[in-house]
Specification:
Layout lengths: L1 H13 L12 E5 L2 E4 L4 E4 L2 H4 L8 H11 L13 H10 L10 E5 L2 H16 L3 E5 L31 E4 L8 H5 L12 H12 L6 E6 L15 H11 L3 E5 L23 E4 L10 E5 L1 H4 L15 H16 L2 H8 L5 E2 L2 E5 L7 H13 L1 E2 L1 E3 L4 E4 L7 H24 L5
Parallel strand pairs: 3-13, 5-6, 5-7, 7-8, 8-9
Antiparallel strand pairs: 1-2, 2-3, 4-10, 9-10, 11-12, 12-15, 14-15
Helix pairs in contact: 3-10, 4-10, 7-8, 12-13
């Protein structure tokens, strides 16, 4: 125990205060959906590093691919040399894109870095500057992506002015929409009131003209903003507006990609093909790797040397990504994520649970109780009382049942406790 105390003292004293920690767990090892702390406690992990270890912690096929690659080549800087792991990964990814036209790739390290490079590409290709994003969006915490992120003011407060030329449109959050609340049977996720589309069209008339607008950047399913899936026709209407106005559509699939929703990418549920696709998180089972994919005619507009980075397309991360694709195919993880899915809201294993009319802090209290009393790791989402469930794509039925039993006990306990304290009616 003294060792754990020392480790926690190091983190408190020397780890940057700007990092918000969701727990004080000091992890020793992990496998599948389970993690073990240095003091031997076992926890059920329904966060997967915020959707990263989608094949489970330390999948043996991924581990083997990484071990083999480390023995051959750890680093091959992309501006200096080519290497087979990156080229193999490109070959593997092309047929998995929503369209074969998305056949030109740039690799980076994080989701935020990939988003920034997608904006860079859009501006270079269109010779226009402005970007439209949506309420509730999360695209990163870097000084560039701060301008694009709207899920919570905590990410921007106190950091001064951000990148100009960004405009915000409403996202179709039906459960919080006044039209739905007034007439839920008439307006819902299968029959949108069209307010968000009308507002997007109005934005292009009042705030950022099409001739000044380079791209519309959207999460097909809101991630940190609440795990909200749009009405069936919404993305198609956004695609139509972009096409009619010569504006590029960028899909941020950082959290929703690589089988999380039951398809390779969430846009496939809506039969929409973006001009630029942003990928990260589940791409490499925990290794730092992200990417953008676009039509070659777009990437050809960029001058050689304008794109790059020291660790871009790292061979070890690329090897992990190829092994991840093998696991997804061999273990039929798309099918598993759909079969196992808990039907609350969302698609596949990208699940949101919103507690309507709950007092502030209720969702956070559930995550705390789940961790401390039931060894279940959960995350909140957005500014409302929302939980997100992000287990590995290869989670078993038995593990889901175990997790839901722990979850149900947690909710019951918190409700009883809050009622006894007068916090909940």
């Amino acid at each position: 125990m003294s060792n754990i105390k020392n480790l926690l003292e190091i983190s408190t004293r020397h780890l940057a205060r700007g990092i918000l920690r969701k727990s004080e767990l000091v992890v020793d090892r992990a496998r599948g959906v389970w993690i073990w702390t240095v003091d031997g406690k076992k926890y059920l992990d329904f966060t997967t590093g915020i959707g990263v270890t989608s094949t489970g912690h330390n999948h043996p096929k991924v581990v083997k691919a990484v071990q083999d690659q480390v023995a051959n080549l750890i680093h091959g800087q992309v501006n200096i040399v080519l290497h087979k792991p990156m080229l193999d990964l490109i070959t593997r990814l092309i047929p998995m894109m929503p369209s074969r036209e998305l056949d030109s790739f740039f690799f980076a390290n994080s989701g935020a870095e990939a988003v920034e490079n997608s904006i860079k590409l859009a501006r270079a290709a269109t010779k226009k500057q402005n970007i439209i994003v949506f309420q509730g969006s999360f695209h990163g915490r870097t000084i560039g992506t701060l301008a694009l992120t709207n899920s919570n003011t905590i990410y921007k407060a106190g950091y001064g002015s951000s990148m100009p030329g960004v405009h915000v449109a409403p996202y179709p959050y039906c459960i919080q929409c006044p039209a739905h609340q007034a007439s839920p049977k008439t307006y819902n996720t299968t029959n949108c009131c069209s307010y968000p589309i009308t507002q997007l069209q109005l934005l292009l008339k009042q705030q950022t003209a099409p001739q000044d607008t380079a791209a519309v950047l959207i999460e097909p399913i809101l991630g940190e903003g609440g795990y909200v899936a749009p009405p069936a026709n919404f993305l198609g209407e956004v695609r139509k507006i972009c096409t009619e106005n010569n504006i590029l559509l960028i899909a941020d699939e950082v959290q929703s990609g690589f089988g999380r929703t039951g398809k390779m990418f969430a846009v496939e549920h809506y039969n929409v093909v973006p001009d630029i696709m942003v990928m990260a998180k589940g791409i490499a089972s925990g290794f730092p790797l992200s990417a953008i994919a676009a039509r070659k005619e777009l990437t050809d507009t960029q001058a050689p040397g304008s794109m790059g980075g020291t660790y871009v397309g790292n061979p070890v991360a690329c090897a992990a990504a190829s092994a991840t694709l093998d696991v997804i195919k061999e273990e039929q993880l798309f099918e598993n994520s759909t079969k196992i899915s808990v039907d609350i809201r969302g698609l596949g294993l990208m699940i949101g649970i919103e507690f309507q009319n709950a007092p502030p802090g209720f969702a956070a209290a559930i995550t705390k109780e789940a961790l401390e009393e039931h060894n279940l790791i959960l995350l909140t989402a957005g500014i409302s009382e929302i939980l997100r469930l992000i287990p590995p794509l290869n989670v078993t039925k038995e593990e889901v049942e175990d997790g839901m039993q722990r979850f149900n006990k947690t909710v019951k306990s918190v409700v009883e406790k809050w009622r006894s304290e007068g916090k909940l009616q």
